[in-house]
Amino acid sequence: MTIEPLPDLLLSPVIRAALAEDLGRAGDITARACVPADATLTADFVCRRGGVVAGLSVIRLTLAELDPTATVEPLSADGQAVPAGTALARVSGNARAILAAERTALNILGRLCGVATLTQDFVDAISGTRAKITDTRKTTPGLRALEKYAVRCGGGVNHRFGLDDAILIKDNHVAACGSVGEAVRRAKAYAGHLVKVEVEVDSLLQLREALAHDPDVIMLDNFGLEDMREAVTLVNGRVTLEASGGVSLETVREIAETGVDVISIGALTHSARVVDIGLDAVTA
Prior knowledge:
Involved in the catabolism of quinolinic acid (QA). Belongs to the NadC/ModD family. One of its GO terms (cellular component) is cytoplasm. The chain is α/β, with parallel strands linked by helices. It has 2 domains: 8-123 and 272-281, Aldehyde Oxidoreductase, domain 3, CATH 3.90.1170.20; 124-270, TIM Barrel (Alpha-Beta Barrel), CATH 3.20.20.70. The chain has helices at residues 8-23, 29-34, 57-66, 95-125, 144-153, 171-177, 180-190, 204-211, 225-235, 252-256, 267-270, and strands at residues 40-47, 51-52, 71-74, 81-82, 87-94, 132-134, 167-169, 197-201, 217-221, 240-244, 262-264, 277-281. The strands form 3 sheets. It has a 6-stranded parallel beta sheet. The protein has a 4-stranded antiparallel beta sheet with strand order 3-5-1-12, covered by helices on one side. 41% of the residues are buried.
C-alpha cells in the first residue's frame, strides 16, 4: 500500500519545536563532551516490537535540521506492517547531529507508528463488513495532522480535522438550541453548499426528529446494538450513519455488523500505545 506522505511544510514546525525543547539552552552537551566534532556515524532505526509504519519522513526532516548533508535510506514504507526487529531506515552523517536528533525522531515516529498500529487492529477486526474506521478530534495538541495521517497509514479514514471543515451538532449544541430538529434546521440554513451537516443523537426518538430535517450524517451516540440495528433499518440508506461512544476491539465487530457506515474511535489517537523504536549504531 502506497501512502502519500505529509508535506514537509506540516512536519517541519513540529520537528523544530520538539528539537528546540530537547536541545535547550546549550545543545547536546553529552555529545559535545564525548564525540569529536568531525566524527561520523551510521545507524538504523529499528522496530523493537511489530507494528505498522507511519511517519518515516520525520527521520529525514529531524536529521536535516542538524546535519543537512546527512543521508537517510528508507528500508520500509509508511503503511507497511513489520515484525519486531525490522530496520525502518538507515542514517549516515555527523555523529553529534545524529545523536542529538535521535530522541526527537524516535518520540514522534514511535507515536505515529502506535496510532497506525492500533488503527489497523480495529480495521482488521471489522474485515468483511461495510463499515469504516475513523478517528476524532481527540488528538495530541499540535500533532493532529500527523496523527490523522497515521490513522490513514493504518487503513482508517479521517473525520473532520477541525471546527471549520464540517458542522457537527453535539448534545450541548442541541441543549442551547432547544431541540435536535431546530439545531439541524439552523445548521442547514447556515451551511455553504460544500459544508456537510452531522448531528449527534442519543435515542431513536431524536433520530426520527433529525431525519425530518435531512442532515448529511447522523451520529448514534452510545446506542445499544438492538437500537443501532433499528436505526439502520429506519434510515435505510438515506443518510450516513456513524456509531460512536465506548467502542473497543472487543465490541467493534458487533457494531460493524449492525450495518452502520462509519465507526468513530477516539482511542485511535488518545490511547494508542507507542511502538518501541530504537537507534542502533551499525559497526563494521
